[in-house]
């Protein structure tokens, strides 16, 4: 963004909060790959690792950071968008990362007001700010999703994930945030007693985003610290994330608009047939 643009309310960046009701369902890896995919569309993108106790964004991007949000917090009184840049780490994709603290006890040092200020500064400097939140709904996660322009709720087809995600969606509805939510069903073609289409019905979601299951690519991506949209850009899982980034980046069809039209939006990169899945 230019200096003129970044001070204009109309061109303020968009914040995407990625959250989930439970851990271990691919929230961080989707956050990282979404951010890189948005950057590939010539957007300036920052990631805030909002899992302040056990954040893994730096690990997922193989970043050896010098500073974290803890150090930025210590200089909060004089912090502006340029000073905040000094605490961030750069990825070769162009994505900038504000890492979570190095130790879980440091999360208690972060105040809601300070985190809000840092988010606002990031939005002044970037087209998109992707925030990988912690699992569940703690005080910091609530603060972040309330500030978000769009909330991606990640779930899988496991029974516990379905149950907890349904409760999360109901809570977001009570808080008046449901219109900002887009459900992402990760590992949507995994072996499960619940099929992807049935999972969408259980969650009361007409238009979820479906991301295919690819354990080998995701595992290698995390272990090597290389986003799969870079290392395996032609894979089906990468194509799904690219499409999700295109949908978010172009802001073509919001969840609200889809619901009004009564149409289901699918990012299935595969065809379903009786008895299995064919690509």
TrEMBL record:
GO CC term (a single one): cytosol
InterPro entries according to UniProt: AAA_dom, P-loop_NTPase, ParA/MinD_ATPase
Pfam family, one: AAA_31
Single GO MF annotation: ATP binding
GO biological process entries: negative regulation of cell division
Location of the AAA domain: 14-173
PANTHER family named in the record: SEPTUM SITE-DETERMINING PROTEIN MIND HOMOLOG, CHLOROPLASTIC-RELATED, SLR0110 PROTEIN
The protein's name in its UniProt record: MinD/ParA family protein
